[in-house]
Amino acid sequence: MLYEPTITKMLAMKLNGMAEALEEQRKSADVAGLSFEDRLAMLVERQWLWKENRALSTRLKYAKLRQPACMEDIDYRHPRGLQRSIIEHLSGNDWIRYAQNCLITGPTGVGKSYLACALAHKACRDGHRTVYFYAPKLFREILAGQADGSLPALLKKLAKVNLLVIDDFGVEKATAALYRDFLEILDDRHLTASTLITSQFPPSRWHELIGDATVADAILDRLIHGSHRIELDGDSMRKHRGKGMPAHQDPCAFAAGLAGSPKGGDLKEKKGDSVVPQAGLRLGQKTTRS
Q1: Is the CB of residue 268 less than 8 Å from the CB of residue 130?
Q2: What's the total number of domains in the chain?
Q3: Which of 254, 229, 216 is nearest to 87 (CA)?
């Protein structure tokens, strides 16, 4: 076998994972007793993992998540009205496949942003293109787009992603024109893609926040109906963390656990393969907290 030309051709065809595995097999005496089919299967498996890891890395880079959060590191011990069963239901990502929305509300410090980033990270792991925006930054991007003419390109980008995360909605007041543009973003995504919003303000206060009753009604109509609601309460987790509770750690560096994760929501999933999730699940109601 002409080894070096073979490796060169593999790299030219972007079969980097297979080339690395072939190099390992060449240096290992343990694989000598394996059949050709077994060794080929090992090469193909390594190439598949390399390709999936690379795709996941690209999705996470595109998403620009605020913090390295993941589902495996969510804290259910802190008393904030968070139920594991609801989070595990959402982690299946059927709500994203069926273009449903999610709204996380609660006071500052109860982990809204972490939950949003964890759900977004899981979406990336399952093959869904995701984008994260801190709400004031999104409005600044819209304002800049209005000034330099790039707003249509921004709206087109946001309309295409499977999951749009908007964190801390309402933390800064926006103008009436910006709220109308925000409504256009939601309208472009309505019934075609999922939006996840975190806010310190419950929807009942959004009319007061937005100022224009007509625009507020339209925004709520596109977000609330059929959405999944997580309503948190309790003391700030930062206060307890300052007393010795360890901060969140990221046990899932971007490629970790990929081999055991689903193959990707937009790679192999079909609507007939999964059950449509029941929308409107709520947390924070009068239920026994765990």
Answers
A1: no
A2: 2
A3: 229
